[in-house]
Amino acid sequence: MSVQTITRAGATSADAIRTLFSTAMSEMYRTEVPAYQTLVELVEEVNAAVLAADPVERHRLEAAGGLARITEERHGAIRLGTANELSTMRRLFAVMGMYPVGYYDLSEAGVPVHSTAFRPVDGEALSRNPFRVFTSLLRLDLIADADLRREAEQVLAGRNIFTPGCLALIEKAETEGGLDEEDADRFVAEALETFRWHSRANVPLDLYNRLHDAHRLIADVVSFKGPHINHLTPRTLDIDAVQRMMPEKGIAPKAVVEGPPTRRCPILLRQTSFKALSEPVDFRDGDGGGWRSGVHTARFGEIEQRGIALTPKGRALYDTLLQDSRRLVAPAADGSNAGQYMAALREVFAPFPDSWDEIRRDGLGYFTYSLTEAGRSNPPAPGTDLETSIGRGLVRFDPVVYEDFLPVSAAGIFQSNLGDDAQQDFTASPNQQRFEADLGAPVLNPFDLYAEIERTSIAACVAAK
Length: 465
Ligand code: OOG
Ligand code: NI
Hints:
Elements: H1 14-32, H2 34-53, H3 55-63, H4 67-72, E1 74-80, H5 83-95, E2 99-105, E3 113-119, H6 123-128, E4 132-138, H7 146-157, H8 164-176, H9 181-194, E5 200-204, H10 205-214, H11 216-222, E6 231-234, H12 239-245, E7 269-274, E8 278-285, E9 290-297, E10 301-306, H13 312-328, H14 338-348, H15 356-361, E11 367-371, H16 373-377, H17 386-391, E12 395-399, H18 407-414, H19 430-439, H20 446-463
Parallel strand pairs: 1-4, 5-8
Antiparallel strand pairs: 1-6, 2-3, 3-4, 7-10, 8-9, 11-12
Helix pairs in contact: 1-2, 1-9, 5-8, 5-19, 8-9, 10-11, 13-14
Bound molecules: 2-oxoadipic acid (OOG) and nickel (II) ion (NI).
């Protein structure tokens, strides 16, 4: 395996380790969940067709350094059981240049977890490989049954989801400021073990059933030796086409695409998924040391289309319009009113500007700015106003890709029957403090990161000679 290394004391760059890891994860998931392989092929097919039909988009992606990213892109998701698991996971991801961004409180949508997304944060790292992992922590405090809570806590306290080799290499990376090539390869192999599927449960069937009755997710987190990756999501350039074509490939998608409607200029994130598989699992057979067969449903497939990152103003508009459309037509869990919902969504979102220039002028989205060819041969004089340079064709602007998640969409993926009054509280709630204490660090604010990427690009334009 060859990695791109940087010269500093022979250390492998965090970006290179992340790429090794996301590639290994993708390979593992392809063999574990064959439908994922089918989905990846479908997405590649659709992306190639979109780029062939749209040379302008192709050129724009190329110019923004984004073309190579598209087929590489993945996100995954895991669910953890304890504070200790979460803080160690933070240290594990840091070795790959991934940091906790954002806080998502899913309890408001009836899912007993709160979450963050580990991802690269600066523009350069993102353009190399934006691999991200949506990471949830189970909230046992939301289990009403005190006895069941104690049992679950006991099971979780007795497991160790990281291999000793993985823990040793995390420490080595922390003390030595990185890993050499050989250690990087070992680290990836050891870390991968944590994300692997275990067909043998960690609990007897009876306890599994009681956990499952409390909430399906509680059973998923507590019953296994580790936090198996539950989906891996490729990025498509046309989610409507993928949604349409999934049945042709023998995959049944959920009824509605989550997030904003189809638009010329995509905003934020649109997602669809196929239902979790029912998989055979062996459960411990009481004290006898034997095994009993059963099933568990956890792992599924998901596809997403990413659009521009919105400013707080753009996000507020998005949240209002989404709420309005859900008030008009609440998507039914069985998909019976999917057409109606999508129509309402399109109609309600009509006031959201649908050209990059309008989105930019209205301060709704983040952009990167760069010199055009004309701008490079004839740089704007120092102090020239950015708008003037754009007007003269010396500077161009490109949308910054949204790298995060949407709580309503995530909840819709977790369970597709949100009530009318389900809230989308994206800001701090009292639980964020608890989450950060368990994480052992504050989560980063996504808006700050996008603003920084925009600022850096403007500074580079102004400084160019
Ligand atoms: C995470 C669901 C959230 C997304 O893309 O919004 C998510 C989970 O099911 O563990 O991955
Ligand atoms: Ni996902």
